[in-house]
Amino acid sequence: MSIRLIVGLGNPGPEYEQTRHNAGFWLVDNLAGPVRLAREQRFNALAGKTSIAGSEVWLLEPQTYMNRSGQSVGALARFYKINPDEVLVVHDELDLPPGAAKIKKGGSSGGHNGLKDITAALGTQDYWRLRLGIGHPRTLGLQQPVADFVLHRPRKEEQNLINEALDQSLNVIPLLVQGKFEQAMMELHTGK
Question: Where do the annotations place tRNA binding (predicted)?
Fold first, then answer.
């Protein structure tokens, strides 16, 4: 078992580009590098294939709003016969502080509407997640409602920490593509 599809979650449009909710897009944009993600009407997404650790991997950025992300993920996974346990969904995580990143398989959506929709589209919670910490407004001492918080840019110090987590995450993606999940988790979670 290895990862064949990496999905970055976010909202389309320039007004959302730099918002916390688009952390998943940020990682996929970095992974794509010189590969240009193209508009794929049949998946309602930007998609492209790249080579990671010697394997061909699909990169996907749904162009629906966050709460409809499952439409794109389900359509591409069905079309290319990609099993849920071969899917890695990269998303912002309120329950982790900026700078933290964690990998896990399965589990609840934790209130994340993008994950709820993907779970419904795939018919299971048994897919991989790369959770990029953005912090919670209460933990960060802000009075902002969560919905407002995720749709705003991180403060400069938070952005620097998120960028570090993105870099650390990019370093373990080849291990995930090779099916070395335990090693990837150990390296990302402990920094070793």
Answer: 16, 65, 67, 113
Catalytic residue among 21, 91, 112, 152: 21
Six token digits for residue 62 = 């749904």
Length of the chain: 192
Annotated active-site residue 21? The verdict is yes
**pTM for the whole structure:** 0.96
Residue 132 three-state SS: strand
The pLDDT tens digits for 136-166 are 998 888 899 998 999 999 999 999 999 999 9
Kindly report, residue by residue over 10-62, the tens digit of the pLDDT: 999 999 999 999 999 999 999 998 888 999 999 999 999 999 999 999 999 99
CATH of domain 5-190: 3.40.50.1470
**Contact partners, residue 147, CB within 8 Å, separation at least 6:** none
113 is in an annotated binding site: yes
- Ligand-binding site membership of 67 (annotated): yes
Can you tell me the distance from the alpha carbon of 4 to that of 176, in angstroms, rounded to the nearest whole number?
9
